[in-house]
Design goal:
The chain contains 13 helices and 16 strands. It has 2 domains: 184 residues, Rossmann fold (3-Layer(aba) Sandwich); 124 residues, 3-Layer(aba) Sandwich (Rossmann fold). The chain has 322 residues and is an alpha/beta fold. The strands form 4 sheets. Strands 5-2-6-7-9-8-14 form a 7-stranded mixed sheet, sandwiched between helices. Strands 11-13-12-15-16 form a 5-stranded mixed sheet, sandwiched between helices. It has a two-stranded antiparallel ribbon with strand order 1-10. A hairpin with a 2-residue loop joins strand 3 and strand 4.
Amino acid sequence: MTVKSWMYAVLEAVQGEMRDDPAMTWIFELTPPVASNPGMPVINLETEFGRRRVVNTGIDENWMVSAVIGAGLAGSRSATYIPYQGAGMPFQVIQNHAGKLRHMTGGKASLPVVFVIEMTGQTPGFAGQHSDYEVDATYMHIPGVRTVVPSTPYDAKGMMVAALRSPDPVVYLYPAGLRMLSEEVPDEQYEVPLDKAAVRFEGSDLTLVGSGGGMPDVLAAAARLRDAGMSVEVIDLRVLKQMDTETLVTSVAKTRRLLAVDQGYYTLGPAAEVVARCAENVDGARFRRIAFPDAPPPASPEMFNWMRPTADRIVAAAQAMV
């Protein structure tokens, strides 16, 4: 295996699938599908596959998601990359068409399409219109669409391969703050399941749950808690829909305490869903969630980070529960 960055791992997955399937297309705006990695050849999808298969559009997310849905209905695998949150018009098309067409046709229509949506929310330094919120809660609300949010380069590649091979539409959320994260990633194609959470550490005192861009703070907090003698079980959701309820419930039934961490707003985020599912299935446990407050973030990075569920806040909340 080779140490690879997040973006290199993702594009390597796409490159491998496009080499195997001459009908597969990639549609993008603003951000060319190019990645480099020390000691590895540069990946440039547009140069390798040409502009008929790697299409650079104008800034029109509505057209982009509609085009890949049409390609999927016609029998071609297709993916589109939408930078800078991708809410608004893309959500309407994905919700009203991608999420419903397989059901409306009784499963006869196949939709092997992937919507790669960059999440810049809760990242200091972006303009207010691009860092006001995370879109994970928005897309995990849509029935008929799988919604995933990997947090490691290994999962990023494996889940991209699985998403591109799925007959169901997949919203693939990519946290911008993890862009340069690197780790060992296999060179060959492989799949990571689109319906399983990952238990990063096992423990018995507290279940600590996070996802996506929040995982670095979750893991940093867990390391500090474990050094202090607390047995912490850490779960990386990875999949928001369909959420792996079984893994969550099994853990909370053991630890009797759940702390769910959410980088998005406090109300109706993934953490709220985690707490609700566990509370429905585990009697007598203690539950708590921490998230970004229900308030627009300030421009100042210092104040922005003061509002985020940082490792310090996670440690304090965990110690208060145990």
